[in-house]
């Protein structure tokens, strides 16, 4: 008898009963479908969830807000974190901060009961005011697509083994699975994801992480200037779309308003909008580096394919480098604030200044004889969202 021949339909139960083989195939198909849908999602705003009344809600309703998404349980050792979460919500919600609470019964079955019962418990015991959503799975075949997306963006990076609770969690989970730390799965209740106002998943916190660290990161996102600083990345993929003149003008204005010693303003700035000039110098580069260019199937121009560039020059005799650096940082942060990407480039400078065939490019920039090209900033609409690379906080010491 075939697999499908063993399927029986029971109208009174409104379910399909099938043998193990067919059920496994159905689960695999559903999992594959959910995976495709999740992979096509670009941000959390592409997902719908059910609220505590069972109604479908689009997360687009939270666009423009800083979010902390957390899977919770009412009978867990970490359940008192509800008090800390409510304190965060009360402090920052007036500024556009939201906590999205998703009860989950997958860890020790510590979230029993209906969502109504859970909400009543949390209100009575912790006086919470942030929204709670219907119970979901965060791991496995039935996991909500939102969590598939979150875990893909921010995988598990380990517990702090210098923390007693982190050491305890590591020991418990390693006894169950010696390689548990190599998987992105949610490990326990009260795992948290911080999401920026533009939908980027910024950070993942394990339940043992200090809430003070979570709050510090929330503060960075709540302040627009700090959020821009923390969001800036070196972008190396751009859309084929020139930046509007008005935006380039604003970037340059922000740049020349950077501080400089004794207000000497020792820089010279050239913003290149001429696409033909970029193409012409790129052609020289292509001829001189034919093999390298041939290996890059996405190669369009020598400036990381950016549609526009900003050339910064400093005195040929030396000096002005520090001021020029401050100028460049101002421009890159201004670009970030306007939804643009940037990348500071040194390689093209070396090529242009050392290759006689590229002399026309320097002449077109009209750089005074007593100045030299110092660095180039690629600028354009980003076609990627690079992850932040780790920073060595040990390099910072506070002298008290």
How would you concisely characterize the structure shown here?
This protein has 400 residues and is α+β, with helices and mostly antiparallel strands. It is built from 13 helices and 12 strands.
Fold and architecture overview:
The structure is a single chain. By secondary structure, this protein is α+β, with helices and mostly antiparallel strands. It folds into two domains: about 40-230, Glutaredoxin (3-Layer(aba) Sandwich); about 245-380, NADH Oxidase (3-Layer(aba) Sandwich). It is about 40% helix and about 15% strand. It contains 13 helices and twelve strands. The protein has helices spanning about 20-40, 80-90, 115-125, 145-155, 165-175, 210-220, 225-230, 245-255, 275-290, 290-295, 320-335, 345-355, 360-365; strands at about 10, 15, 50, 55-60, 65-70, 95-105, 190-195, 200-205, 270, 310-315, 340-345, 370-380. The strands form four sheets. A four-stranded mixed β-sheet has the order 6-5-7-8, covered by helices on one side. A four-stranded antiparallel β-sheet has the order 9-10-12-11, with helices on both faces. Helix 1 (about 20-40) crosses helix 4, helix 6 (about 210-220) packs across helix 7 and helix 8 (about 245-255) packs across helix 11 (about 320-335). The chain starts with 7 loop residues before the first strand and ends in a 20-residue tail after the last strand. The relative contact order is 0.09.
What are the defining features of this structure?
400 residues; alpha+beta; Glutaredoxin; NADH Oxidase; disordered N terminus
